[in-house]
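Q: For a teaching session next week I want to show students how multiple molecules come together into a single three-dimensional assembly. I've collected the sequence lines for a complex. Could you give me the predicted structure tokens for the whole thing so I can convert them for display?
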Amino acid sequence: MREEKEVFIIKPPSSVFETINLKEVVNRIELLFAFAIRDIKVRYRRTIIGFGWAVIQPFAQMVIFSLIFGKFAKIPSENVPYPIFAYSALVPWQLFARALNDASMSVVNNLSIISKIYFPRIILPLSVIISALVDFFSAFSILIILMIFYGILPTAKLFLFPVFLFVEIFCALGVALWLSALNVKFRDVKYTLQFLTQIWLFATPVIYPTKIIPEKFKPIFALNPMTGVIEGFRWILLNTPPPDFTIMGISTLMIFILFFSGVIFFYKLEKEFADIM
Amino acid sequence: MGIAIKTENLSKLYKIGRREPYGALRDVISEGIKKIFKKNSGIHQEKYIWTLKDVSFEVKEGEIVGIIGRNGAGKTTLLKILSRITYPTEGKAVLKGKVGSMLEVGIGFHPELTGRENIYLYGTILGMKKKEIDKKFDEIVDFSGLSQFIDTPVKYYSSGMYVRLAFATAAHLQTDILLIDEVLAVGDVGFQRKCFQKMEEVRKEERTILVVSHNMEAILRFCSRAILIDKGKIIKDGNTKEVVEEYLKYFSEIHNFREWSFDEAPGSEFAKLKSVKIKDKNGNQKNSFDSREPIFVEVEYWIIKPKNIYVSIVLQNQMGVIVFIASESSSYFGRAYKILEPGLYRAVCEIPPDLLADGNYILRVVLVEMKKDSYPLFHADVHNAVGFQVFVPLAPDSPRMDYPGGYPGVVWPKFKWETYQVDKNIFA
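A: Of course. Below is the structure for the complete assembly, covering every listed component.
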């Protein structure tokens, strides 16, 4: 029982890099899942259709969009039926929007725990990804059914699926790390989030294809990291034209800069979380 | 035995600014009252405060140390720094071994989840591994005594059950160093006994424990050493009994009486406090009372401009519990609108005999103006104005009678009991 005990030194951090501790986060990976499981369980508890909501939300959106944009506005859909064109983008979009929103709120929603128990705070926004992914895969199952229904077969490019998923998650986290930390000090973030998500949705080719964007605006549009992600998903699933990989490379690089600066920013503000309350 | 905790000049500077008014009505109200009070008294609030200043001590492995002090003395801040919830502003602390903390039992519980799910969630938040919880699960449930309700969402639990489950989970946390804040005073008497037993067990395991409590009985029972903190500084560190005595003395002897000159008196342009005295039935100033005698609180105040002002006293015991609030008004609404003409007034409140329990008490004195359509306005508000002591003697006519031990309860009144035989037959 007399094993060597770990020695920990508490002192005012001289730089933010002193406080970033990846090993500690890995050590508490069970907590990350515990928070995710809590969120998943609580989200659909006391609802009649439970997980069905994860499917119904994007599905209902798809039906509405198909009617408004597909039927009435006659927005072109790259030679695939509009419902599947919209749904194949709405499912990854929903993942992004949920991860962005919930992660941004995660610290504020758990302030009471933060003020009483220590754990690496970054676990909170990270755990949101797990619960968002669970919803994502539930909704994705419907996409498979739709593809079978429309007789669309995925291509061999399917192996790129995780890559786009990965880029998307980092994009959501990169933004959310900034916002979740800011949110503790300025609750305005909550309200900003609502229209940020909305504007972002319309700035991304979810309900329309990229080709209807005038040529001169295309580079600006492509800089939106989600453009490449959504186009990428459609490309591997529905065999629509591929995203511009040069521009996607640039926006991916931007995402990583956003993510790593987000981590630093989060840790910088983190030490004040318990004091602000 | 090595050193488990060592702190060097640990200090924490807090900003005491205005809280963001996130729609919390309570804050808005208290903010409003403060503002008015500020204007009247001209009290200038500092923006920064050292809640902890140059705190240095060492704790050996296996030692159980009690941290005592008044509310706001800095005890919780110390635990928060040691448990890494907040950073110190200056100084450092070295901790050897795994640290666990129980600063508030049950924080992290989710009301929608069942008892079972919450044990896992809370245990994981506290730092337990799933395997550890699996192994201890039955023990935790057994300890809580809630096996029947373990699959019920905790929102249906009573607050007692809630706390029992949370404490049971936290008590099974295996760490080398344990930081505990005022969690021993939870649940009913039966569960408290269980908690004490658990603490005894823990003590035998040679873990290092730092415990903050206002419960001197618990401190005396479990701690071999105590540290008294006030205004962020260590006042005394040493043998538990001596430190507790110092604390009680410190606490009860804040002031025997208070008297102010007109210029220095706390108050407003309408009213000022002149004096606060504690007297016995013969009118002698006194600070230690036999529970069988009445206690008289005498408050003198000046009314400077005509105003409907009255005196309120708030009695707090040594655990910081408010025992009662007494207001100098025969009717809550009627008296409040009777205007007092300028002059010197004296209000005497008689605290009846055979009411208070053993211990030290502290009085807060307030000059209140009852407003018709808004919250009462405080013209003067003196916390810890005076203190006194009450002892319940070993006497046939005291509620203690011939029982020498301690007795839980905020008050210890003398009750009227009547017992008589209803029937001679057992099976009527």
